[in-house]
Amino acid sequence: MFRFMRTLRHPAAFTATLLAAATVQTPLATAAEAGRVAAPDAPMGLPVCPRDRVFTADGATAPLGPALTISPGVTIENQGAFRIQEDGQLHLQGGVIVRQGERSLSADELLVDTQKSSARVSGTVEYRDPSLTVRGADGDFQDGAARITGAQFELPQQPARGEARLLELNQNGQLRLEGVSYTTCPPERSDWHIQAGSVTIDTNTNIGVARNARLEFLGVPIVRLPWLSFPVGSARKTGFLFPSIGSSSRGGLLLAVPYYFNIAPNLDATFTPTGYSRRGFDLGGEFRYLFSHSEGALTGNLLPDDSSYGSNRSRLRLHNVTSLPGNWRFTLDGENVSDAQYFEDFSQGTDGASIAFLSRVAHLSYRDPQLHLGILARNFQTIDQALLPLDRPYTEFPRAYADGSWRTNTALPLEYGFQSELTGFRRSIGVEGWRMHVAPQLALDMAGPGYFLRPQLAFDSTTYRLRNTATGEDRSPSRSLPLASLDGGLLFERSVGGRKQRVLTFEPRAMYLYAPYRRQDHLPVFDSGTPDMNWVELFRSNRYVGLDRIGDANQISVGFTTRLFDAASGTRFLAATLGQTIYFESPRVRLPDEPPATRNSSDLIAQLELKAFEDWNVDLGMQWNPDQLHAERSEVRVQYRPESQRVMNLGYRFQRGRMEQADFSVAWPVSRQWNVYGRMLYSLDQSQAIETFAGFEYSSCCWGLRAVAREYVSRRSGDRDRGIYLQLELKGLSSVGLAADAFLERAIRGYSADPRRR
After folding, report:
1. Any idea where the domains of the chain sit in the sequence?
2. What is the pTM of this model?
3. 242: number of CA atoms within 13 Å, CB side?
4. What local confidence, expressed as pLDDT, does residue 48 receive?
5. What's the Rg (C-alpha) of the chain?
């Protein structure tokens, strides 16, 4: 509705141009080219055509004939007759069309008063431009002002339409409409519309005010406001946003009424009070800022005296990124909640039961093509209270690091650099202290068409200064060892297919790694662990993440990748990888709870991505134990997706000793206007559903309704929650209710509520 208001300045600007052009006294080239001669005494300088009967006396009439150009770019077409009256008024009848570029104004009659700089049109008045059509019974134009009665308007690009009993636009760009109605529905079916007693628009400030406004859906008023201020078009405006309504078994019924503050072009805030029938009132808000070198947001919630929990509940989140001079950057990112059950009570899914920690980081960093350095402080809030104190993460304060990499400008592709770090680890229980790490590196980066070869040498040195150690333990342990690796790969490709329309590649790779054994069980474990096995981990120089353990190695990692592409477009149809590490000596370095290695090879890693047909996709991944002849981890995903709103997914995930799950989700149209949705995430090892939801959508040309009922595990204890998502979308206006479309896009892989996405 409000974008329409802004475009209504076109008719007045157009008619003002027409009135100004009507006083021009210069005959135009089109008349001269037609052999017409302008009479010296012709009013308004209109050309007199020899073949037309033109009388200047009052009451004389004549057909105007072909299009008449009265000013550069402005023409008048008339199939009837016109008269020039004694008082200088020009009266055209019988279908008049005034054109200027892509804009036109037509009427049954046009009366132009050059002395008063006014014009009056009557009898099916119509204004058109590419973005707007206005029709009315009659209209007046004077001194850049316009007045049209019985106006009906259409916005073809929206599409949208409406009507107003009276439309007035003055020369200052202020628009007034009385008896306004607006909708995006077709004329034969106005399922929803906005009605207002009057609407005033200032097209200079792009601010509008509606009085006695109401929104009706299927004849039922949804919103009724005696006064409403709103932005025109995409401009921002302080005021209320559409409310959200929903329900959950833990919070009960909820109603959120956001209020938006447009503080400045680069500052805004949203205050969102939310009422829960079982908890009370939550005061939520967000403040956002954007400067030339800094951006960020501060969000928070405060629920005083949660009647269900028995105390105050709160959440605070800050995110800031500031670009400083000289490639420096400062980042603040942190979150805090009042209690460990906060996300379980207020999150909208199973994610609330899986948050173990909240990170808080302050980070100052520098980066250029050769050097990366910085200092940070990192702290964690533990959400999972089942974790023992000795298993909770350390606070890093401070952590200073510097990494560098350079390359010589000689024929020998020599690279050299270093990695270094100094970190203080703090915790209320257990060993604390400092860790200093330095690792210089030297490598040759040899590459060419179809191959790469990278030999590398490094020396790792790590030293600790510890506190709270057991009696007799070394407070200054250290570790030093060299590392050597040789990484290389080849690329073969060939054209395949009857017309050579495909390209098939074969890409073998091998990496030898040597790191001598150093005793490390006397070193603390501040931030180290074992990652999940995958293709990338096969070719890393350390089988641990973190610096507290450097794995001994005398091994070779081998593998290959093969891909199938379309030769013309580059579309990938297939990608398959297979790899394994072979140990020449069994690794001896371990973490405290890690079992000793007894095998001479790692698990096999296999991955397959297959686009079997145009709308089918298959992803397979497996970590296979060749000694036990079983899978340690596996994942299968099959998707059928002919379009963004028509998708079906089937998945299976397995981790030995941890989980086994099956996942099915679907979004599918069952008719032209009805869609159905559903998902079930089922735990096979626990024989119960983790999450289940089902819903439907009805979509007409101008409105849509989505409803989703959901049950899911919301707590680590296995307790469940139930909720309802209900969203009414008035197309071209806004939506009322919880954002069911956003929830469906997160829950159903590949689904998009926007049919334009592919």
Report:
1. 2-237, 430-611
2. 0.75
3. 15
4. 34
5. 37
